[in-house]
Amino acid sequence: MTRSKITKMAFKISARNKSKSAMLIASVGLAIGVSVISNTANAKSGSGEYDLTYLEEFGKRLFFENISDPKRMACASCHSPDAGGTNGHSQTNQTQVAVTGADPNGQNHGQNPDKEGGNPNPRHPNAGALKPPTNKYVQFLDEYGERSGTPNFSSSCAPFRLPCGGAFWNGRATGTQIEEAGIKVFDGLPDGNKYEEMYTKYLGPVADQAHASPFINPVEQGHKNKQATCEQVAKTKWGSELYYFSWGKELDCKKDTDSAFGRFAVALGAWQMSADNNVFNAKRDTALEYDTIHDNGKFPLMGLTDEENLGHDLFYGAPRPFGGAGAGCLFCHRSVRSGETSDGTDKFERYADDSYHNIGVPKNYEVPGITETTIPDMGVMFLTDIESHEGLHKTPTLRNVDQRPNSNFTKAFTHNGYFKTLGQLVHFYNTRDIKPNCEVEYGIQAATVEEAIANNCWPTSEYPGTTARGITGDLRLTPKEEAAIVAYLKTLTDTTVVKSPLPYHSSKYDESRLSHTYLPKP
Protein backbone atom coordinates (compact mmCIF):
# COMPACT_ATOMS: atom_id res chain seq x y z
CA MET A 1 0.00 0.00 0.00
CA THR A 2 1.37 3.42 -1.00
CA ARG A 3 2.02 6.11 1.55
CA SER A 4 -0.71 8.34 0.01
CA LYS A 5 -3.28 5.55 0.31
CA ILE A 6 -2.31 4.92 3.94
CA THR A 7 -2.62 8.65 4.64
CA LYS A 8 -6.04 8.80 2.95
CA MET A 9 -7.26 5.74 4.87
CA ALA A 10 -6.09 7.18 8.19
CA PHE A 11 -7.73 10.50 7.41
CA LYS A 12 -11.01 8.80 6.49
CA ILE A 13 -11.09 6.77 9.70
CA SER A 14 -10.53 9.90 11.76
CA ALA A 15 -13.11 11.85 9.78
CA ARG A 16 -15.86 9.56 11.07
CA ASN A 17 -15.47 11.30 14.40
CA LYS A 18 -16.93 14.77 14.02
CA SER A 19 -14.69 16.47 16.54
CA LYS A 20 -11.58 14.92 15.04
CA SER A 21 -12.77 15.83 11.56
CA ALA A 22 -13.21 19.45 12.60
CA MET A 23 -9.66 19.50 14.01
CA LEU A 24 -8.31 17.99 10.81
CA ILE A 25 -10.12 20.48 8.63
CA ALA A 26 -8.72 23.30 10.77
CA SER A 27 -5.26 21.82 10.29
CA VAL A 28 -5.85 21.73 6.56
CA GLY A 29 -6.66 25.43 6.61
CA LEU A 30 -3.46 26.21 8.48
CA ALA A 31 -1.43 24.07 6.11
CA ILE A 32 -2.81 25.80 3.04
CA GLY A 33 -2.87 29.31 4.46
CA VAL A 34 -5.36 31.71 5.97
CA SER A 35 -6.99 32.36 2.59
CA VAL A 36 -7.39 28.90 1.08
CA ILE A 37 -8.52 30.03 -2.33
CA SER A 38 -8.40 33.71 -3.24
CA ASN A 39 -9.69 35.18 -6.48
CA THR A 40 -7.26 38.05 -6.29
CA ALA A 41 -3.53 37.96 -5.88
CA ASN A 42 -3.39 40.85 -3.42
CA ALA A 43 -6.35 39.97 -1.20
CA LYS A 44 -5.36 40.34 2.45
CA SER A 45 -6.90 38.88 5.57
CA GLY A 46 -8.75 40.87 8.17
CA SER A 47 -7.93 44.42 7.12
CA GLY A 48 -11.47 45.60 6.47
CA GLU A 49 -12.53 47.51 3.39
CA TYR A 50 -8.91 48.28 2.46
CA ASP A 51 -8.70 44.81 0.93
CA LEU A 52 -11.09 46.21 -1.68
CA THR A 53 -10.56 48.60 -4.54
CA TYR A 54 -12.36 51.91 -4.29
CA LEU A 55 -14.99 50.70 -6.75
CA GLU A 56 -15.57 47.48 -4.78
CA GLU A 57 -15.87 49.35 -1.50
CA PHE A 58 -18.28 51.81 -3.09
CA GLY A 59 -20.37 48.87 -4.32
CA LYS A 60 -20.27 47.15 -0.95
CA ARG A 61 -21.49 50.25 0.87
CA LEU A 62 -24.25 50.71 -1.72
CA PHE A 63 -25.24 47.10 -1.01
CA PHE A 64 -25.43 47.38 2.78
CA GLU A 65 -26.78 50.93 3.18
CA ASN A 66 -30.54 51.42 3.62
CA ILE A 67 -30.99 53.28 0.34
CA SER A 68 -34.76 53.28 0.17
CA ASP A 69 -37.92 55.27 0.76
CA PRO A 70 -38.67 55.03 3.63
CA LYS A 71 -35.10 54.46 4.73
CA ARG A 72 -35.46 50.90 6.02
CA MET A 73 -34.30 48.57 3.27
CA ALA A 74 -30.95 47.67 1.71
CA CYS A 75 -29.88 45.25 -1.00
CA ALA A 76 -28.71 43.10 1.92
CA SER A 77 -32.28 43.00 3.26
CA CYS A 78 -33.19 40.52 0.52
CA HIS A 79 -29.69 39.11 -0.05
CA SER A 80 -28.43 38.42 3.44
CA PRO A 81 -24.83 37.12 3.55
CA ASP A 82 -25.51 34.78 6.48
CA ALA A 83 -28.37 33.17 4.50
CA GLY A 84 -26.23 32.50 1.45
CA GLY A 85 -27.20 35.72 -0.31
CA THR A 86 -30.94 35.02 -0.12
CA ASN A 87 -33.67 36.27 2.22
CA GLY A 88 -32.48 36.39 5.82
CA HIS A 89 -35.90 36.44 7.51
CA SER A 90 -36.91 32.97 8.64
CA GLN A 91 -40.61 33.74 9.16
CA THR A 92 -40.93 35.15 5.64
CA ASN A 93 -39.31 32.01 4.24
CA GLN A 94 -41.78 29.87 6.16
CA THR A 95 -44.79 31.82 4.89
CA GLN A 96 -45.07 34.36 2.07
CA VAL A 97 -41.51 33.83 0.72
CA ALA A 98 -41.63 37.06 -1.31
CA VAL A 99 -40.15 39.97 0.64
CA THR A 100 -42.29 42.99 1.49
CA GLY A 101 -40.89 46.26 0.12
CA ALA A 102 -39.52 49.24 2.02
CA ASP A 103 -42.99 50.78 2.06
CA PRO A 104 -45.36 47.99 3.18
CA ASN A 105 -48.34 50.09 2.12
CA GLY A 106 -47.03 50.95 -1.33
CA GLN A 107 -48.65 49.79 -4.57
CA ASN A 108 -47.57 46.62 -6.31
CA HIS A 109 -47.10 47.11 -10.06
CA GLY A 110 -48.74 43.93 -11.31
CA GLN A 111 -46.94 40.90 -9.84
CA ASN A 112 -49.01 37.76 -10.42
CA PRO A 113 -52.01 39.39 -12.12
CA ASP A 114 -55.03 37.15 -12.09
CA LYS A 115 -56.87 36.04 -15.20
CA GLU A 116 -59.62 38.57 -14.59
CA GLY A 117 -57.24 41.49 -14.13
CA GLY A 118 -58.10 41.80 -10.44
CA ASN A 119 -56.02 42.97 -7.50
CA PRO A 120 -52.76 40.97 -7.79
CA ASN A 121 -51.79 41.12 -4.13
CA PRO A 122 -54.81 41.50 -1.83
CA ARG A 123 -52.96 40.26 1.28
CA HIS A 124 -49.61 41.98 0.87
CA PRO A 125 -50.02 44.81 -1.69
CA ASN A 126 -46.35 45.71 -1.73
CA ALA A 127 -44.55 42.37 -1.78
CA GLY A 128 -42.57 40.83 -4.61
CA ALA A 129 -43.59 37.68 -6.43
CA LEU A 130 -40.66 35.27 -6.00
CA LYS A 131 -37.93 34.26 -3.59
CA PRO A 132 -34.90 36.57 -3.85
CA PRO A 133 -32.17 34.78 -5.84
CA THR A 134 -28.70 34.60 -4.35
CA ASN A 135 -26.26 37.39 -5.19
CA LYS A 136 -23.23 35.13 -4.56
CA TYR A 137 -21.26 33.12 -7.13
CA VAL A 138 -23.22 34.56 -10.05
CA GLN A 139 -20.07 36.02 -11.57
CA PHE A 140 -16.56 36.42 -10.16
CA LEU A 141 -13.03 37.30 -11.20
CA ASP A 142 -10.58 34.41 -11.27
CA GLU A 143 -6.95 34.56 -10.15
CA TYR A 144 -5.98 36.11 -13.50
CA GLY A 145 -8.53 38.89 -13.18
CA GLU A 146 -10.78 37.45 -15.88
CA ARG A 147 -14.55 37.36 -15.55
CA SER A 148 -16.08 33.94 -14.97
CA GLY A 149 -19.60 32.81 -14.27
CA THR A 150 -22.90 33.40 -15.97
CA PRO A 151 -22.61 34.74 -19.54
CA ASN A 152 -24.83 37.33 -21.19
CA PHE A 153 -28.29 36.05 -21.99
CA SER A 154 -28.96 33.96 -25.09
CA SER A 155 -32.25 32.31 -26.01
CA SER A 156 -30.54 29.22 -27.42
CA CYS A 157 -27.33 27.70 -26.03
CA ALA A 158 -25.40 24.50 -26.70
CA PRO A 159 -25.73 21.61 -26.21
CA PHE A 160 -29.52 21.44 -25.68
CA ARG A 161 -30.55 24.75 -27.30
CA LEU A 162 -31.98 25.98 -24.00
CA PRO A 163 -31.87 29.64 -22.98
CA CYS A 164 -28.90 30.47 -20.78
CA GLY A 165 -27.08 33.35 -19.12
CA GLY A 166 -28.35 36.58 -17.69
CA ALA A 167 -29.46 37.21 -14.12
CA PHE A 168 -32.75 37.10 -12.20
CA TRP A 169 -34.95 34.00 -12.24
CA ASN A 170 -36.23 34.99 -15.68
CA GLY A 171 -32.96 36.26 -17.19
CA ARG A 172 -34.18 39.80 -17.76
CA ALA A 173 -30.82 41.24 -16.61
CA THR A 174 -29.34 40.20 -19.94
CA GLY A 175 -25.87 41.71 -19.57
CA THR A 176 -26.23 44.40 -22.23
CA GLN A 177 -29.02 46.55 -20.83
CA ILE A 178 -26.91 49.42 -19.52
CA GLU A 179 -25.33 49.94 -22.93
CA GLU A 180 -28.63 49.37 -24.78
CA ALA A 181 -30.22 52.07 -22.62
CA GLY A 182 -27.68 54.47 -24.08
CA ILE A 183 -25.91 54.97 -20.74
CA LYS A 184 -22.21 55.46 -21.40
CA VAL A 185 -20.61 55.11 -18.00
CA PHE A 186 -17.12 55.91 -19.29
CA ASP A 187 -18.01 59.11 -21.13
CA GLY A 188 -17.26 62.43 -19.47
CA LEU A 189 -14.57 61.05 -17.17
CA PRO A 190 -11.18 62.84 -16.93
CA ASP A 191 -9.41 59.77 -18.33
CA GLY A 192 -12.20 57.62 -19.71
CA ASN A 193 -9.89 55.10 -21.37
CA LYS A 194 -8.22 54.29 -18.05
CA TYR A 195 -11.53 53.59 -16.34
CA GLU A 196 -12.89 51.68 -19.30
CA GLU A 197 -9.85 49.42 -19.29
CA MET A 198 -10.24 48.74 -15.55
CA TYR A 199 -14.01 48.47 -15.28
CA THR A 200 -15.39 47.03 -18.54
CA LYS A 201 -15.19 43.53 -17.04
CA TYR A 202 -17.82 44.54 -14.49
CA LEU A 203 -20.46 45.29 -17.13
CA GLY A 204 -22.77 42.31 -17.59
CA PRO A 205 -25.69 40.50 -15.95
CA VAL A 206 -24.75 41.39 -12.35
CA ALA A 207 -24.42 45.09 -13.11
CA ASP A 208 -27.65 44.93 -15.14
CA GLN A 209 -29.42 43.31 -12.20
CA ALA A 210 -28.41 46.25 -10.02
CA HIS A 211 -29.45 48.73 -12.71
CA ALA A 212 -32.89 47.08 -13.22
CA SER A 213 -33.32 48.46 -10.45
CA PRO A 214 -34.27 47.47 -6.89
CA PHE A 215 -33.57 51.06 -5.79
CA ILE A 216 -36.55 52.41 -7.74
CA ASN A 217 -38.79 49.34 -7.78
CA PRO A 218 -41.94 50.11 -5.76
CA VAL A 219 -42.05 46.56 -4.36
CA GLU A 220 -38.40 46.76 -3.25
CA GLN A 221 -36.46 49.81 -2.09
CA GLY A 222 -39.05 52.16 -3.49
CA HIS A 223 -37.29 55.42 -4.40
CA LYS A 224 -39.41 57.46 -6.78
CA ASN A 225 -36.61 57.92 -9.33
CA LYS A 226 -32.86 57.74 -10.00
CA GLN A 227 -32.21 61.28 -8.80
CA ALA A 228 -33.77 60.60 -5.40
CA THR A 229 -31.59 57.50 -5.07
CA CYS A 230 -28.48 59.44 -6.05
CA GLU A 231 -29.24 62.23 -3.59
CA GLN A 232 -29.54 59.79 -0.71
CA VAL A 233 -26.17 58.27 -1.65
CA ALA A 234 -24.62 61.74 -1.83
CA LYS A 235 -25.80 62.49 1.72
CA THR A 236 -23.94 59.55 3.24
CA LYS A 237 -20.46 60.05 4.71
CA TRP A 238 -18.93 57.88 2.01
CA GLY A 239 -21.02 58.42 -1.14
CA SER A 240 -19.47 61.48 -2.78
CA GLU A 241 -15.91 60.66 -1.73
CA LEU A 242 -15.91 57.04 -2.86
CA TYR A 243 -17.66 57.99 -6.09
CA TYR A 244 -14.91 60.52 -6.80
CA PHE A 245 -12.14 58.11 -5.81
CA SER A 246 -13.67 55.37 -7.99
CA TRP A 247 -14.51 57.41 -11.09
CA GLY A 248 -12.31 60.52 -10.92
CA LYS A 249 -15.37 62.78 -11.15
CA GLU A 250 -17.61 64.63 -8.70
CA LEU A 251 -21.02 63.09 -8.05
CA ASP A 252 -23.68 65.24 -9.74
CA CYS A 253 -27.20 64.00 -9.13
CA LYS A 254 -28.94 66.64 -11.25
CA LYS A 255 -26.93 67.00 -14.47
CA ASP A 256 -25.41 63.52 -14.63
CA THR A 257 -28.19 61.36 -13.15
CA ASP A 258 -28.29 58.51 -15.66
CA SER A 259 -24.51 58.09 -15.86
CA ALA A 260 -24.14 58.24 -12.07
CA PHE A 261 -26.87 55.64 -11.65
CA GLY A 262 -25.14 53.42 -14.21
CA ARG A 263 -21.87 53.78 -12.32
CA PHE A 264 -23.64 52.77 -9.11
CA ALA A 265 -24.68 49.57 -10.90
CA VAL A 266 -21.12 48.91 -12.11
CA ALA A 267 -19.84 49.38 -8.54
CA LEU A 268 -22.44 46.95 -7.19
CA GLY A 269 -21.39 44.50 -9.88
CA ALA A 270 -17.73 44.93 -8.97
CA TRP A 271 -18.26 44.14 -5.30
CA GLN A 272 -20.59 41.22 -5.97
CA MET A 273 -17.94 39.76 -8.31
CA SER A 274 -15.14 40.33 -5.81
CA ALA A 275 -13.25 37.86 -3.63
CA ASP A 276 -14.92 39.49 -0.64
CA ASN A 277 -18.28 38.09 -1.80
CA ASN A 278 -17.07 34.88 -3.46
CA VAL A 279 -14.55 33.31 -1.11
CA PHE A 280 -14.51 29.66 -2.26
CA ASN A 281 -13.67 28.42 1.24
CA ALA A 282 -16.36 25.80 1.88
CA LYS A 283 -15.54 22.46 3.47
CA ARG A 284 -15.46 20.93 -0.02
CA ASP A 285 -12.90 23.54 -1.16
CA THR A 286 -10.62 23.02 1.82
CA ALA A 287 -10.77 19.25 1.50
CA LEU A 288 -10.11 19.39 -2.25
CA GLU A 289 -7.14 21.71 -1.79
CA TYR A 290 -5.65 19.46 0.89
CA ASP A 291 -6.15 16.36 -1.23
CA THR A 292 -4.56 18.10 -4.22
CA ILE A 293 -1.44 18.82 -2.17
CA HIS A 294 -1.20 15.47 -0.37
CA ASP A 295 -2.71 13.00 -2.80
CA ASN A 296 -4.29 13.07 -6.27
CA GLY A 297 -6.95 15.76 -5.84
CA LYS A 298 -9.73 13.34 -6.73
CA PHE A 299 -12.83 12.12 -4.92
CA PRO A 300 -13.28 10.51 -2.43
CA LEU A 301 -11.63 13.32 -0.50
CA MET A 302 -9.85 12.75 2.79
CA GLY A 303 -11.56 15.75 4.40
CA LEU A 304 -15.12 14.56 3.72
CA THR A 305 -17.06 11.86 5.53
CA ASP A 306 -18.10 8.64 3.84
CA GLU A 307 -21.65 9.97 3.54
CA GLU A 308 -20.49 13.24 1.96
CA ASN A 309 -18.27 11.40 -0.53
CA LEU A 310 -21.17 9.09 -1.40
CA GLY A 311 -23.33 12.18 -1.97
CA HIS A 312 -20.71 13.52 -4.38
CA ASP A 313 -20.65 10.26 -6.33
CA LEU A 314 -24.45 10.23 -6.58
CA PHE A 315 -24.47 13.90 -7.59
CA TYR A 316 -22.09 13.28 -10.50
CA GLY A 317 -23.32 9.81 -11.43
CA ALA A 318 -25.62 9.31 -14.42
CA PRO A 319 -29.26 8.80 -13.34
CA ARG A 320 -30.51 5.24 -12.98
CA PRO A 321 -33.29 5.58 -15.57
CA PHE A 322 -30.43 6.09 -18.07
CA GLY A 323 -28.45 3.08 -16.89
CA GLY A 324 -26.24 4.92 -14.41
CA ALA A 325 -25.79 4.57 -10.67
CA GLY A 326 -26.37 8.13 -9.57
CA ALA A 327 -28.83 11.02 -9.54
CA GLY A 328 -27.55 13.05 -12.48
CA CYS A 329 -27.53 16.37 -10.59
CA LEU A 330 -24.57 17.51 -12.69
CA PHE A 331 -26.75 17.84 -15.80
CA CYS A 332 -28.05 21.18 -14.47
CA HIS A 333 -25.67 21.95 -11.61
CA ARG A 334 -22.30 22.02 -13.35
CA SER A 335 -20.48 25.15 -14.41
CA VAL A 336 -19.73 25.65 -18.07
CA ARG A 337 -16.05 26.11 -17.27
CA SER A 338 -15.94 22.62 -15.76
CA GLY A 339 -16.04 20.96 -19.18
CA GLU A 340 -18.10 18.06 -20.41
CA THR A 341 -16.39 15.44 -18.22
CA SER A 342 -16.39 17.29 -14.92
CA ASP A 343 -15.90 15.13 -11.86
CA GLY A 344 -16.43 17.97 -9.40
CA THR A 345 -12.79 18.89 -8.90
CA ASP A 346 -12.72 22.31 -10.57
CA LYS A 347 -11.45 24.78 -7.98
CA PHE A 348 -13.99 27.40 -9.05
CA GLU A 349 -16.97 25.10 -9.59
CA ARG A 350 -20.21 27.06 -9.14
CA TYR A 351 -22.71 24.17 -9.44
CA ALA A 352 -24.93 25.88 -12.00
CA ASP A 353 -25.17 25.48 -15.78
CA ASP A 354 -26.68 28.98 -16.05
CA SER A 355 -29.52 27.54 -18.14
CA TYR A 356 -33.28 27.60 -17.59
CA HIS A 357 -35.30 24.53 -16.63
CA ASN A 358 -38.73 23.56 -15.32
CA ILE A 359 -38.37 20.85 -12.67
CA GLY A 360 -42.12 20.72 -12.03
CA VAL A 361 -42.32 22.84 -8.87
CA PRO A 362 -45.93 23.12 -7.59
CA LYS A 363 -47.70 26.44 -7.11
CA ASN A 364 -46.90 28.04 -3.79
CA TYR A 365 -50.17 29.47 -2.48
CA GLU A 366 -48.34 31.24 0.35
CA VAL A 367 -46.81 33.73 -2.09
CA PRO A 368 -48.83 36.96 -1.98
CA GLY A 369 -51.55 37.03 -4.59
CA ILE A 370 -51.25 33.41 -5.72
CA THR A 371 -54.65 31.74 -6.00
CA GLU A 372 -56.18 29.06 -8.19
CA THR A 373 -56.88 31.71 -10.84
CA THR A 374 -53.55 33.54 -10.84
CA ILE A 375 -50.94 32.88 -13.48
CA PRO A 376 -47.65 31.82 -11.85
CA ASP A 377 -44.43 33.55 -12.82
CA MET A 378 -43.79 32.43 -16.40
CA GLY A 379 -40.02 32.37 -16.07
CA VAL A 380 -37.81 33.07 -19.06
CA MET A 381 -40.79 33.16 -21.42
CA PHE A 382 -41.29 36.68 -20.04
CA LEU A 383 -38.12 37.59 -21.94
CA THR A 384 -38.23 35.34 -25.01
CA ASP A 385 -41.98 35.02 -25.66
CA ILE A 386 -41.29 31.44 -26.78
CA GLU A 387 -44.03 29.04 -25.70
CA SER A 388 -41.65 26.16 -24.94
CA HIS A 389 -39.88 28.42 -22.42
CA GLU A 390 -42.99 28.81 -20.27
CA GLY A 391 -42.20 28.09 -16.62
CA LEU A 392 -38.44 27.69 -17.15
CA HIS A 393 -36.43 29.39 -14.39
CA LYS A 394 -32.71 29.91 -14.03
CA THR A 395 -30.67 27.19 -12.36
CA PRO A 396 -29.18 28.72 -9.20
CA THR A 397 -25.74 27.99 -7.84
CA LEU A 398 -25.66 25.35 -5.11
CA ARG A 399 -22.87 27.10 -3.24
CA ASN A 400 -24.25 28.21 0.13
CA VAL A 401 -27.55 26.52 -0.65
CA ASP A 402 -27.76 25.51 3.03
CA GLN A 403 -26.04 28.53 4.60
CA ARG A 404 -28.10 29.96 7.44
CA PRO A 405 -27.48 32.10 10.54
CA ASN A 406 -28.51 29.32 12.95
CA SER A 407 -29.83 25.76 13.01
CA ASN A 408 -33.42 26.89 13.69
CA PHE A 409 -33.52 29.16 10.65
CA THR A 410 -35.88 28.19 7.81
CA LYS A 411 -34.70 28.60 4.24
CA ALA A 412 -36.93 28.54 1.16
CA PHE A 413 -35.88 26.63 -1.96
CA THR A 414 -36.68 27.01 -5.69
CA HIS A 415 -37.89 30.18 -7.37
CA ASN A 416 -41.22 30.29 -5.50
CA GLY A 417 -39.90 28.96 -2.18
CA TYR A 418 -42.26 25.97 -2.11
CA PHE A 419 -39.74 23.69 -0.37
CA LYS A 420 -38.44 24.45 3.13
CA THR A 421 -35.62 21.90 3.51
CA LEU A 422 -33.02 20.40 1.21
CA GLY A 423 -34.33 16.97 2.16
CA GLN A 424 -37.80 17.84 0.85
CA LEU A 425 -36.36 19.15 -2.41
CA VAL A 426 -34.14 16.12 -3.04
CA HIS A 427 -37.06 13.84 -2.23
CA PHE A 428 -39.16 15.73 -4.80
CA TYR A 429 -36.49 15.30 -7.48
CA ASN A 430 -36.44 11.59 -6.62
CA THR A 431 -40.18 10.85 -6.46
CA ARG A 432 -42.11 13.55 -8.34
CA ASP A 433 -43.37 11.19 -11.07
CA ILE A 434 -44.04 8.08 -8.98
CA LYS A 435 -46.15 9.49 -6.17
CA PRO A 436 -49.91 10.10 -6.57
CA ASN A 437 -51.14 13.54 -7.54
CA CYS A 438 -52.49 15.34 -4.46
CA GLU A 439 -55.40 17.02 -6.29
CA VAL A 440 -56.44 14.13 -8.55
CA GLU A 441 -55.96 11.16 -6.22
CA TYR A 442 -56.78 12.67 -2.83
CA GLY A 443 -58.68 15.86 -3.57
CA ILE A 444 -56.15 17.94 -1.62
CA GLN A 445 -56.10 21.45 -3.07
CA ALA A 446 -53.28 23.96 -2.59
CA ALA A 447 -51.19 21.48 -0.58
CA THR A 448 -48.17 22.86 1.24
CA VAL A 449 -44.99 20.80 1.07
CA GLU A 450 -45.62 19.49 4.58
CA GLU A 451 -49.15 18.39 3.63
CA ALA A 452 -47.88 16.75 0.45
CA ILE A 453 -45.24 14.74 2.28
CA ALA A 454 -47.65 13.77 5.06
CA ASN A 455 -50.08 12.40 2.44
CA ASN A 456 -47.35 10.84 0.30
CA CYS A 457 -48.34 12.81 -2.81
CA TRP A 458 -47.15 15.75 -4.91
CA PRO A 459 -49.28 18.61 -6.29
CA THR A 460 -49.49 19.50 -9.97
CA SER A 461 -46.64 21.51 -11.48
CA GLU A 462 -47.08 25.23 -12.15
CA TYR A 463 -46.46 24.47 -15.83
CA PRO A 464 -46.91 20.74 -16.54
CA GLY A 465 -46.38 21.10 -20.28
CA THR A 466 -42.72 22.10 -20.06
CA THR A 467 -41.69 20.03 -17.02
CA ALA A 468 -38.38 18.19 -17.53
CA ARG A 469 -38.87 14.44 -17.67
CA GLY A 470 -36.42 11.57 -17.34
CA ILE A 471 -33.57 13.28 -15.56
CA THR A 472 -35.90 14.26 -12.70
CA GLY A 473 -38.97 12.67 -11.14
CA ASP A 474 -38.00 9.00 -10.77
CA LEU A 475 -34.36 8.74 -9.73
CA ARG A 476 -34.79 5.46 -7.80
CA LEU A 477 -32.73 6.67 -4.83
CA THR A 478 -33.01 5.13 -1.37
CA PRO A 479 -33.63 7.33 1.69
CA LYS A 480 -29.97 6.80 2.63
CA GLU A 481 -28.87 8.04 -0.79
CA GLU A 482 -31.15 11.08 -0.58
CA ALA A 483 -29.55 11.92 2.78
CA ALA A 484 -26.07 11.50 1.29
CA ILE A 485 -26.80 14.04 -1.45
CA VAL A 486 -28.04 16.50 1.18
CA ALA A 487 -24.88 15.91 3.21
CA TYR A 488 -22.71 16.65 0.17
CA LEU A 489 -24.65 19.83 -0.62
CA LYS A 490 -23.96 21.06 2.91
CA THR A 491 -20.20 20.84 2.25
CA LEU A 492 -20.67 23.71 -0.25
CA THR A 493 -21.36 26.24 2.53
CA ASP A 494 -18.73 28.96 2.96
CA THR A 495 -16.97 28.84 6.30
CA THR A 496 -16.94 32.64 6.57
CA VAL A 497 -19.68 35.24 6.15
CA VAL A 498 -19.33 38.66 4.56
CA LYS A 499 -19.52 41.40 7.19
CA SER A 500 -21.17 44.75 6.66
CA PRO A 501 -18.71 47.64 6.19
CA LEU A 502 -17.10 49.36 9.15
CA PRO A 503 -18.02 53.00 9.82
CA TYR A 504 -16.54 55.18 7.10
CA HIS A 505 -13.62 57.50 7.76
CA SER A 506 -12.54 59.99 5.14
CA SER A 507 -9.00 59.46 3.88
CA LYS A 508 -6.51 60.69 1.33
CA TYR A 509 -6.72 59.33 -2.20
CA ASP A 510 -4.55 56.25 -2.79
CA GLU A 511 -4.13 55.41 -6.47
CA SER A 512 -3.08 51.83 -5.66
CA ARG A 513 -6.68 51.14 -4.62
CA LEU A 514 -8.02 51.65 -8.13
CA SER A 515 -7.37 48.04 -9.14
CA HIS A 516 -6.02 44.70 -7.98
CA THR A 517 -2.85 43.03 -9.18
CA TYR A 518 -3.58 39.62 -10.66
CA LEU A 519 -1.47 36.61 -11.45
CA PRO A 520 -0.03 36.54 -15.00
CA LYS A 521 -1.71 34.02 -17.26
CA PRO A 522 0.47 30.94 -17.82
The gist of it:
Its main location: other. With 522 residues, the protein is mainly α. It has 2 domains: 54-279, Cytochrome c-like domain (Cytochrome Bc1 Complex, Chain D, domain 2), CATH 1.10.760.10; 283-491, Orthogonal Bundle (Cytochrome Bc1 Complex, Chain D, domain 2).
Please describe what this structure looks like.
The chain has 522 residues and is mostly helical. The chain folds into two domains: 54-279, Orthogonal Bundle (Cytochrome Bc1 Complex, Chain D, domain 2), CATH 1.10.760; 283-491, Cytochrome Bc1 Complex, Chain D, domain 2. Helices cover 31% and strands 3% of the residues. The protein contains 18 helices and six strands. β3 (154-157) and β4 (162-164) form a beta hairpin. Residues 57-276 form the Di-haem cytochrome c peroxidase domain. GO terms for molecular function: cytochrome-c peroxidase activity; electron transfer activity; heme binding. Pfam families: CCP_MauG.
Supply the CATH architecture of the largest domain. Answer: Orthogonal Bundle
Shape: globular
Fold-level CATH name of the largest domain: Cytochrome Bc1 Complex, Chain D, domain 2
Provide the CATH superfamily of the largest domain: Cytochrome c-like domain
What is the domain tally? 2
Backbone structural class: mainly alpha
- Provide the gyration radius in Å: 23 Å
Q: Note the gap between the termini.
A: 36 Å
The count of β-strands is: 6
Encode the helix/strand succession as letters: HHHHHEEEEHHHHHHHHEHEHHHH
- Biggest sheet: strands side by side, in what order? 1-2
Output mean pLDDT.
88
Q: How many separate helices?
A: 18
* DSSP helix fraction: 25-40%
How much strand content do the residues show?
under 5%
